[in-house]
Specification:
Structural class of chain B: alpha+beta
Helix content of chain B: 10-25%
Radius of gyration of chain B: 19 Å
Oligomer: heterodimer
Structural class of chain A: mainly alpha
CATH class of chain A: Mainly Alpha
CATH class of one domain in chain B: Alpha Beta
CATH topology of one domain in chain B: Ubiquitin-like (UB roll)
Shape of chain B: flat
Order of helices and strands of chain B: EEEEHEH
Number of domains of chain A: 1
Shape of chain A: globular
Strand content of chain A: under 5%
Largest sheet of chain B: 3 strands, antiparallel
Strand order of the largest sheet of chain B: 4-3-5
Number of helices of chain A: 9
Number of helices of chain B: 2
CATH superfamily of one domain in chain B: Phenylacetic acid degradation B
CATH superfamily of chain A: Ferritin, core subunit, four-helix bundle
Largest interface: A-B, 12 and 14 residues
């Protein structure tokens, strides 16, 4: 199966009031949009690896739909970051021409898919965070981010429903499915906490009413995940190990391979179009 | 219950024999039954058969239907129906069922003179 082939519509970012001389004068929002955009882009790329490999044909299309939603979010966010940065970079420049240390996605989204159980465990952890994140961003003081959030919140609500269904089905399924989804959950779990790191940049954006408070996000995330895991008869992993660094451009080994696959066509044929 | 020799609407193919066919749920790993999908494209229109899919239960069937048949905004409502519960007419009965209507054009409302004043007909 090929990747989804819907024509990509030109992006129309909502235009809201901006601070005077906005181009390049709000590096915090640029970086924040890059972080969220990279999260979505990298997870979309990972999900696309399931094309033609899913447990069933129907799930193949379901996963590609999720990936396409994330790709759309990423396009809006990278376009926004490029426009605010004021250096003339568009979404393609940011997606295809940055190197590994320039990407600021969390490590959670770049981890290898593993089996279907592990992929669904990660989907649950990401979606349970994305729902309150985008809900919060709907009320962002930044009109462009709020505009993107209005569309994204509906998409990630379905992503959560999808992941919840599968995690419960696998967890409360057979002995094998439970063992494997629990193993997958144990592997990805420590990486999830990076989603809630509140560095100075995030704290400044929270104070300005641009970004939702990571502490509140984590509470909502914990409640959602807890509820699903109980229903799925899975246990919450217990570990003190807490990998971090994605937001500073520090990535796992798996990321370089992902990026090579993502970027090689664009870099081999600069400016190509069809 | 099926009529005649036993036919279902499996796979949207009209009539598929069910008698003498092992009920392996389509022979798929995990034995997932077949569902027929009906999509209502707009409010005011009726649900129309869109296709079929495999799913282990109704919950998943509905979600698979959403992902397979409404990804280009085709619908505002979805029904999923277990294919085995649809009773289909048998191809053997085609003559008896449908041919008698063939020479009765007067059943179409085409033999009336419609007055010019009548609107919206």
């Amino acid at each position: 199966m090929n990747l989804p082939t819907e024509p990509l519509a030109p992006l129309a970012l909502p235009r809201g009031p901006r601070p005077p001389g906005s181009a390049g004068d709000d590096p915090d929002v640029v970086t924040y949009a890059l972080r969220l955009g990279d999260d979505a882009l990298v997870l979309a790329q990972r999900l696309c690896e399931w094309a033609a490999c899913s447990p069933q044909l129907e799930e193949d299309v379901a996963l590609m739909n999720l990936a396409l939603d994330l790709l759309g979010q990423s396009r809006s966010l990278l376009t926004l970051a490029g426009a605010r940065e004021g250096r003339g970079r568009d979404e393609d420049d940011l997606a295809f021409l940055r190197d590994e240390p320039d990407f600021v996605n969390v490590q959670l989204v770049e981890l290898a898919n593993g089996d279907f159980g592990r992929t669904m465990a990660r989907q649950l952890l990401v979606a349970a965070y994305a729902v309150p994140l985008w809900q919060g961003l709907c009320a962002s003081a930044d009109a462009d981010l709020a505009g993107i959030a209005g569309k994204a919140v509906k998409e990630v609500t379905y992503h959560l429903d999808h992941a919840r269904s599968w995690v419960v089905r696998l967890g409360d399924g057979t002995e094998q499915s439970q063992r494997r989804v629990q193993a997958g959950l144990d592997e990805v779990w420590p990486y999830a906490l990076e989603l809630f790191e509140a560095d100075e940049l995030v704290q400044r954006l929270v104070a300005r009413g641009v970004a939702p408070d990571p502490t509140a996000l984590r509470e909502q995330w914990s409640a959602t995940v807890q509820e699903v895991l109980i229903e799925a008869t899975l246990s919450v992993p217990e570990t003190d190990w807490r990998p971090t660094g994605g937001r500073r451009g520090v990535h796992t080994e798996a990321f370089g391979y992902l990026l090579a696959e993502l970027q090689h066509v664009h870099r081999s044929h600069p400016g190509a179009s069809w | 219950m099926t009529t005649g020799g036993g036919f279902s609407a499996a796979g949207g193919h009209g009539a598929v024999p069910t008698a003498g066919v092992p009920s392996t749920d389509g022979g798929r790993p995990g034995g997932q039954p077949l569902w027929e999908v009906f999509v209502r494209s707009r409010r005011g229109l009726s649900h129309t058969h869109a296709g079929s899919l495999h799913a282990p239960d109704a919950h998943m069937a509905l979600r698979n239907a959403r992902d397979l048949y409404t990804r280009r905004q085709e619908g505002v409502s979805i029904w999923v129906v277990p294919a085995k519960d649809i009773v289909a007419s048998s191809p053997d009965e085609k003559d008896a069922f449908f041919d008698p209507a063939g020479d009765k054009p007067y059943r179409h409302p085409t033999f009336y003179d419609v007055p010019d004043e009548v609107q919206h007909l």
